[in-house]
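pinned: reference chain
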Amino acid sequence: MIRPAVRLPPSQPPRHEVEFRGDVRIPSSEPGLTLGADLYLPKVTHRVPVLVTLHTGRKDGLGGVAASRYLRYFAERGYAVLYVDCFGIGTSEGTPRPLLSPGEVADGVSVVQWAAAQPWCTGRVGMWGLSHGGMTTLAVAAERPPALKAIFPVMGWTDVERDLVHPAGLRGGIGMFGHLSLYNIFCALLPPLRGEDKENYESLWKERLEKFEPWFADAWQHPPGHAVWAERRIDARRITVPSLCVAGWRDLFCDGMIAAYQQIRAPKQLIAGPWLHTFPDVAPVGPFPSAVLACAWWDRWLHGRYPRAGTRERTATFFVQGAGARWVRAEQWPPEKKADHVFVASRSGHLYRSAAGSRPSAVATVTGRGDPTVGALSGLTKHPTDRFGYPLDQHDDDARTLTFTSAPLPEPLLIAGRPAVRLLLGPGTTATRCVLKVTDVDEQDRSLLVSSGTVDLAGRDDVVQVQLDPTCYQVAAGHRVRLVLAEADIPRLWPAAEPGRLAVRVIRGPGDYVGLAAEEYEGRQATTLSLPAGDPEALTDVVVPVPERRGTAGPVRDRWEIARDHLRSSVRLTVEKRDRIRFPGDDRDFLAMTTQVDLGVPEHHPAAARMKATGEKTAETPDGDRVVVRAGIDMGAADAAVTAEVLVNGTQFFTREWKWT
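pinned: its structure tokens
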């Protein structure tokens, strides 16, 4: 049956003029200390619902400027909108807290309660935000403040350890310890930039400089498995308000965001696109008008227009990657399955499709030495980058790992859900972790990343069940499926100190395989890959209009390089990112940020791996002062140093250094 395509609702024209109020003071969870906020208030004579964002990307910085188009968009359509600086950031009082500390969540609850009580508010509150703002949205919703009635989390996370700092419980790489640590220093140490804010809060800023501790210190001092991380996890099962969740297939928080969507106990919708870590409306690939859908979501849930009692909406709109790329909609995520396509790994390096009723082959063991330089070709899909870093051809990395490849597929295969690997380890395994990838191998032997997952092998049994990241990807007929097993995934993970070996149990011959229980199979077991095959009949095509592009960003000059030195057997990665906001009608920058992260990993001595990250953020204040915040990070396997300095009009105003060994 051919289903008619769904058309997304058009953007509603603006209905109201907007009054801007800067430096609104809101009580924090700390008695006597307040948070600073920007308020966008529609000029109306009646009360309106309010939308709240609590973010570490300060309101007078790159984060707030980038979000301003959406803040105004919602306000023009009848909502009061608050963008609030986190505790110790911008004009908010206090000293910056660690990521997702209990006080940060309590601040969010305090903001919701304050906003609901304002004379211009109906008492109904929505909360939303991208990245850190998405995380605070989920965390506050899990606390269930009565005034909070709906949420719109965009690429947030629920487990700060496993989603960000230490992926899969292993020491993280340049994402947290490089990019985000630099950004945290810039946001915390930059003084208030607006004229009135500078006058009122200069003493607050000077006091903050002396007490500031960077996110890097918190991440470094709390290794994988530390009790502090469990205290900061969000239980998405506690969220009972209608939730419009946004995830990116190539985003570092894809797994956590979709898991949160599945756990939320309320009417909910999912939007999942082919994005890196960016707002969907301005994504360079597959842009999507999420602000339009969010406004419709607010209209529905903040104005009391509920569906009939007892209904529980769980629709999902998502992008099919690979062959026949398109937007589709299903009644749920994951969509209905036709079947699980199960493949078994063989000694010859082939993946054989299992078939019911066949006799299994005898079992063998294959081994491979871990290569600590593997992973860079997977791109920056697990990093906080927004415009560049999509996966490259995995072929060269595949050649350095254990791989198992299927025959050409006789028909297209729609993978929709979480691929799963039943990994059977043999004697001789010394690797401390295993990185598993599924790739799509085309006719030119290019290997295109579909999904990946990581498991810590320390203390594991011989049989390890691994769930890979959720995805929706169609493999074309004639293409092959490849299972890749590696020990490294740089720059997402810090390399293991010593290369290990993976010994994997597989079948000897090419016969079909039946995954019987161990007691039925007399101990003969082999590694298998299971791909959830979606039912195309359960999907409806969606017509997505191209969002309007506008903004004040200047030209982009980003750089991403991967250099392999075959003589020295090492690899070096360089990621340089430039962001700038310009004065309207002028070629000068009033905000600019440049960061560069270099990671070098020697193949035969990974304990000598080293990361150096440097950057600066410059700002020109309305009264002509030029402020520069510079930061540097030097990190090895067992030592690290962080430096920071502030210059005002070329004169050093502040400098500090942190060291750990």
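why pinned: Residues 514-523 have pLDDT under 50 and may be disordered. The two ends are 65 Å apart (CA to CA).
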